[in-house]
Amino acid sequence: MSASNTVGQHPGTLSALLGRRILAGVIGGLAGGVVFGMLMGMLPVMASMVGSASPWVGFAMHLMISIVIGLGLTVLFGNRLLTGYGRGALAGLAYGAFWWDLGPLVMMPLMLGMPLFTLDLAALLSMMGHVIYGAILGLTAVHVLKGRHE
User: Fold this and answer.
1) Tens digits of per-residue pLDDT, 87-137?
2) How far apart are CA 48 and CA 69, in angstroms?
3) Under 8 Å between Cβ of 131 and 93
4) CB 145 within 8 A of CB 20
C-alpha cells in the first residue's frame, strides 16, 4: 500500500508522517551539527552574534541552528527528496551548499557588520563543513524516515 493510500484511509497517518519528518530533522540536524561543530573553529564568532565570547555558547547556538535548518529540509522536502540514501545525500549536499551561501556569506556578515560574500580560506573551509553537514543530515534523515511506521 502506498503512503498516499495509507493517508487517505487512516486520518491520523498524516500527522504521524509529519511527526516522522520532524524527528528526522531534529536527529539529522543534530548529527550533522555535531560533526560540523567539531570541525568548526568559528564557535566564538557564532557566540558573538548573541554578545558572548564562549565557544560553548557558540556550539549551543550552532546546534540550535543545525536543528532548525534540518527541520527545513525534512519538513518541507522530506517526502520528495529524502526517498533513498543516494537522493538524501545529494539533496543534503545541495542543501548544505545553499545554507553556506545564505549563512556565512550573507546572514552572519550582515549581523556582524562585515562585508558580504567574502571568499577566503575560512569561507572555503566553512563551505566544506556545510556540505558535510548537509550530507550527514540527508543520510540520517533518510534512515529515520525509513524507520518502522507501526
Assistant:
1) 999 999 999 999 999 998 999 889 889 899 999 998 899 999 999 999 999
2) 20
3) yes
4) yes
